[in-house]
Specification:
about 160 residues; mainly alpha; Rna Polymerase Sigma Factor, Chain: A; Arc Repressor Mutant, subunit A; 9 helices; globular; sigma factor activity; sigma factor
Length: about 160
Amino acid sequence: MARSGQVPDDFDAWARPHLPVLHRYAARLVGPADADDVLQEALVRAWRRRSTYDERRGTPLPWLIAIVRDRAGRHRTRRRDHLELAAADGPAAARDPDLDLERAIRALPPRQREAVDLYYFVDLDVAAIAAVMGCAPGTVRATLHQARAALRAQIGDDHE
């Protein structure tokens, strides 16, 4: 058994419950085609750095998400062609509301984009997002509010 404040000896059992969330986040960051690679790199990094995990600072999920974020950034640096939305610029693409929304999300400031990805696509609650982003839950709510306002301004809101 592990010492207090560290990852248990059974890393697989410790990390496995978080894999669906980590995979969804990796897919948001680098696209579905590269998500498995990024997640694998992140898990290897987490395993190698497991002695740096401190349970007194929170649950494993924010720590693991931070590693996925780091590995995704490195992956994007190595592969500049990670999500080329520009490839879909024909007449049909101009009318595709999903592409419009994706472009609008990509245009958000990084902190707002991260909050939107974690809340709407990874399905984390506000408290978990606050732990990941290292801020208060109220800051997450305000960031999401600002992001929604920016998205409405970019693509409009035909549903009201």
